[in-house]
């Protein structure tokens, strides 16, 4: 009896099932572009509540783009396309590693309807030839590139591009060719204003100047440059936020650049600088929770942000690609080395992405939450069976003074553990919010089901003789007689109880894997096949009984045991759903709360309150205007209030 209790109470297959489930999940993750270096990361990412994302290469394409549309500024009668063409002439097509020259030439090729930069350059050479004084490349002192060219019509052009200030007026102390643009005072005002406006919008700028036939240098335009967001970044961030995971951008780029990118991808424009991270205080912690991101950060700042979020009890994911990101990657519960990361970042990360962008991280969240549900299903299943069998063995000994063969308990453990390994393939739907494992919630659900299964088995022991065959009835009365007291129960009765426990335990997984009725979702074919195969073998063995280890059961008893177990399975579903609703109703509110999202929501509510009609009307002129505004169509009211407010 002691041996039976030990076998029944120790879940020997638990480590194997968890490892197999995580390993198969890691394979699924690798197919979607993420290599898992630590299997525990697949469990932790299911609970992730904040994702701190690097900007360059993750949110953006990591490829500078020159804009020559209405965003570009053109002066002195030149068009944006001409500005771009002269900028391309001042670019070195042989140096493809230079990000600015490469970006200008790609934009020029695109403006000509070509996809290949070399083809665009070859076509341009038909119109312009490089003069003997040649091309003057960039260096940190002169901060500009220049080229002297001759057009097909014989016009000589001296083209230059670089920082706006340098193109307007060169520094006499450098060693390059010197000039001051024509109409310097007026052009300087216009150029600096345009440069400032583009800077606020998050653009870097490139000034372009030309001199025609040795005449004065003309400032002809400003080309805005930006590392654009990836095509899928905006949609991916929306999906991650819908999964109740807050996203914060952490970048070393300028504050305006980070803010503009955040606006483009709908991340939120509350981008802070590192000066708000010191000194440590409750106010600092609230800023970190509410901010949409941080710009101009250093490696220590990234580490500090992760530390603050973890101190608030949040599971944090961190992306990075360089050596400077390694400390923050190691600090976060889920370190994610993005595609193209250095060896240091890969070593510090738990997941290494093999595809560009943020979408593999969203995929990882979905896969991890499905894995969590598979493991949760197994844990519920395992606890239920343990409660059922241990309580049954104890009650059998205490109330009936009977023993149950240890061989049957061994067979139950062997067959069910082999069957349940296929839970790793089960179909599950990722949850809508981070999964937070709670022992109390698991125990409430699994113990309520396990105790019910124990009652199910004991009712069959006590009252099975009322509806089963005479063979079972004879075995029941024989087992309950004083002559058999303290011994094993009748073999036919024992075989029937063994079959009932085996069938009910096997089909229990179909209930444990769902939150509703067991037939509400379709399990994976692997799980269905393994469960069916195991039970077919056990039922055939009980019907045939070739070895004599079990007594041969009548087909009618086997059928009645199946009907009995299926009917109880429906009852188990009702108990499971009731326990789940009770837990959802009375569980601590902190389990599902995400302070990083809620802080943002509170802030948005404050903003919406500030824009209510009463506030706007008080600023714009009071109730008299309010009466007039109320008569306007809904879509025009806010615009009237706003315009009136600004006038006032």
Structurally, the number of domains stands at 3
**CATH-scheme architecture of the largest domain:** Up-down Bundle
How would you state the average pLDDT, rounded?
A: 83
CATH-wise, what's the superfamily of the largest domain?
A: Calcium-transporting ATPase, transmembrane domain
Supply the number of helical segments: 25
CATH class of the largest domain: Mainly Alpha
The amount of beta strand, in percent, is 5-15%
Tell me about this structure:
It is found in: Membrane. This is Plasma membrane ATPase. It comes from Durusdinium trenchii. The protein is of the alpha/beta class and 648 residues long. It has 3 domains: 2-12 and 370-586, Calcium-transporting ATPase, transmembrane domain (Up-down Bundle), CATH 1.20.1110.10; 35-61 and 229-354, Rossmann fold, CATH 3.40.50; 65-226, Calcium-transporting ATPase, cytoplasmic domain N, CATH 3.40.1110. 54% of the residues lie in helices and 12% in strands. The protein contains 25 helices and 15 strands. It has helices at 2-9, 14-31, 40-44, 80-89, 99-111, 117-124, 164-168, 184-200, 233-242, 255-264, 282-290, 299-311, 326-331, 343-348, 359-400, 406-420, 439-463, 470-480, 491-512, 525-544, 555-586, 595-610, 613-620, 623-630, 634-647, and strands at residues 34-36, 50-53, 65-66, 73-74, 128-136, 144-151, 156-162, 204-212, 217-226, 246-250, 271-272, 293-294, 316-320, 334-337, 351-353. The strands form 2 sheets. It has an 8-stranded mixed β-sheet, sandwiched between helices. Strands 3, 4, 5, 6, 7, 8 and 9 form a 7-stranded antiparallel β-sheet that branches. It is elongated, with a radius of gyration of 36 Å.
